[in-house]
Structure formats: C-alpha cells, structure tokens
Amino acid sequence: RPVVTRPETQAIDMNSRSNTLADRDIVPSEQTFGFLGLGMMGSTIVKDLIYTKHKVVVWNRTIDKCQPFVDAGAEVKDTPMDVVEAADIIFCCVSDPKGAKDLVFGNCGVLQLKDLRNKAYVEMSTIDPETSMDIGEGIKQCNGRYLEAQIHGSRQEAADGMLIILAGGDRTVFEECHSCFKTIAKNTFFLGTDVGNACKVNLILQTILGVSLVGLAEALALADRFSISLNDIIDIFDLTSMKSPLLLAKGKEMAKGDFNPQQPLSHMQRDLRLVLNMAENLDQSMPVTSITNEVFKHTKRLGYSEHDSSAVFSNFYP
Ligand code: NA7
To answer: By C-alpha distance, which of 307, 301, 182, 262 is closest to 315?
Structure first.
C-alpha cells in the first residue's frame, strides 16, 4: 500500500469570488456580524461577506488565519467573547459539535458575557439536534436569540455562493441574516421555530450522500477488478436515469484518484456518527448507514481523514 500523503492546505485567495455575486444585487445589512471559525468554509464565507460590504469581526483559534481578513478590512478579536461584545449577530462555523459547544460554554466563550440582550447567535457548524438545543437554550437563558443555520454543500459550492441553508429557530434572526445568506447561498429554507429540525434535515441529506458514495466506490472497484475502464462506466452512467451531478463528479475523482478535499472524509464520517446516535435514541434501525459508517471509519484509519469523501474508494483495494 502506498504511503498516504496529506492533501495540501490551500491558502485563501482573497481576490477570487463567485461569479454569481455580481447578479445578486446584495444590499448589505447595517448590522455588525461576528464570525467564529475561519476554516475552509468559514474563510470562504467571510471573504464574500467582506466583498459584499458587510461589517465583519472575526476570531479563529489559530490566530494566523485571521491576518488576510484584517488586511481586507475585518476587525479581529482575541476571544469569542470579545467578538460577541463587538457584534450584533455572531456566526459560528467550526469542525464539530464539541468545538461548537466549547465556543459557547467554554472559557472566554460566548456565555461569559452573561447578558446577550440585542445579540443573536447563528450556529453554522454541522451539529446534532441535541447540541443545537443545548446551545440555543444557553443563548436564550442569557436573553439572546438563536438560529441554527446548517450549511449544505461542498467547499467549491461555498466558493461559488451556491450553498443551501437550512435554518430553524428565531425567525427574526433568519430575516436579519438575509443579505448574508443571499451572498453565500442559492437557496435558503426556514424549517420552523423548533430548534433541531434543520440539523435533522442536514444529517438526513448527509446520510443519502454517504451511502451513495460507498455504493459508487464499491461498484467502481468491482469494475476495476474486471479491468473495465472506469471512465467508460462513468460515461455510460451519465446516460442513465441514475446519474446525478455529484455522483458523476465523485466517480471522476475516484477514477483519477484525485481526492482534493471538497467535503473532507472526516466530516462525512462525523455526520454518519451523528446520524447513528440520533437513530439509536429512536430505536430506528439503520443497517446500511451503520456499514457505511464502518467503511468511512476504516478509510480514516488508512490515512484519508483530510482527503475528500471520494477517497472512500481507497478502502476497496487490498
Ligand atoms: P475546517 O477547514 O476543518 O476548519 C475547522 C475550523 O474549526 C477551523 O477554524 C478550526 O480552528 C475550528 N475548530 C475546530 N475545533 C475547534 C475548537 N475546539 N475550538 C475552536 N475552534 C475549533 O472545516 P470547514 O471550514 O470545512 O467546515 C467547518 C464547518 O462547516 C463544519 O462543521 C462543516 O460541516 C460545515 P483552527 O483553524 O484549527 O484553529
């Protein structure tokens, strides 16, 4: 088995922007927006918010990642709590439920401010419904408003301003985020005032994606064992009623062995784990998702955590 090298981290290109932005006629909100988490998703989103003239205050755990945003006009703060103090609406976009909770309940976290009157908190990190309810409850107890705004889409879709936003919670916050959502998403759904629903919908979509990717990888690996050209399979697949733009793109990546992270494999496996925990609480049987999760877990052990989810293909080679 060849040694697996980590994919290169792409530096944020502050000058690139989605082609769609010019057509969207965005009138920026006058409010100040805080942003916690400048990973691949967060930085792409903040870059476009700055471009569309939103006032932005940022924080990231690794402080170096803030510099390009300061150069582009954003303010940087030392702690999440300082961002909350300086902003009206605060977005959070970090790796997982633990990170999301740390930023709210931890040292120097959002709730250290105690009084969140006139503040709104928007959770964009992919989290499970229970985590979202805990965060929402914490924010509300300090008199703040809470919205879960789950972002569905790849890093490229974020760069193209083509995300789908699934929101739930406080409707007034949803409306006040309009110019931000219009900047980064092609569609935005408000799924009701019950916190947790948007997380459920997002995780259900991720289940469809994860199971489909493993099916695709397994089938292409079989084709390869027969020495059938993977490109031929993909061309024929394209002519069938099964085709989808995403599966075609992922099939091509598998055929090329190009696993440049659009949606990292570790994120996919995190989502499947969250789905299975949700199902467990309901005694809902999910045999296919369970096996899918095992396949992704194993692919992580092979060294592909930071590669794209399409690297699940590598699991099917001895
Ligand atoms: P990345 O590029 O892996 O970035 C992860 C970000 O989360 C990055 O800013 C991290 O800070 C931050 N992070 C992770 N854990 C923590 C904790 N415990 N405390 C503070 N900050 C943390 O992920 P993406 O940007 O692609 O995705 C982010 C979310 O959007 C994810 O939930 C997706 O599903 C949707 P660092 O720079 O490492 O200091």
So the answer is: 301
Neighbours of 285 (CB within 10 A): 9
Residue 2 has pLDDT above 70, yes or no: no
Q: What is the pTM of this model?
A: 0.95
Is the CB–ligand 1 distance for residue 93 below 6 Å? yes
Ligand 1 pocket check for 151: Cβ under 6 Å: yes
Cβ distance 312 to 292 under 8 Å?
A: no
Which residue of 12, 44, 94, 272 sits with most ligand 1 atoms within 8 Å of its CB, as the best mutation to test the pocket? 94
Regarding the beta carbon of 41 and ligand 1, being less than 6 Å apart is answered: yes
**Cα 247–chain centre separation:** 19
Q: Please write the tens of the pLDDT for every residue from 50-84.
A: 999 999 999 999 999 999 999 999 999 999 999 99
DSSP the chain: -PPPPPPPPPPP-TT---TTGGGG-----SSEEEEE--SHHHHHHHHHHHHTT-EEEEE-SSGGGGHHHHHTT-EE-SSHHHHHHH-SEEEE--SSHHHHHHHHHSTT-GGGG---TT-EEEE-S---HHHHHHHHHHHHHTT-EEEEEEEES-HHHHHTT-EEEEEEE-HHHHHHTHHHHHHHEEEEEE--SSTTHHHHHHHHHHHHHHHHHHHHHHHHHHHHHTT--HHHHHHHHHHSTT--HHHHHHHHHHHHT----SSBHHHHHHHHHHHHHHHHHTT---HHHHHHHHHHHHHIIIIITTSBGGGGGGGG--
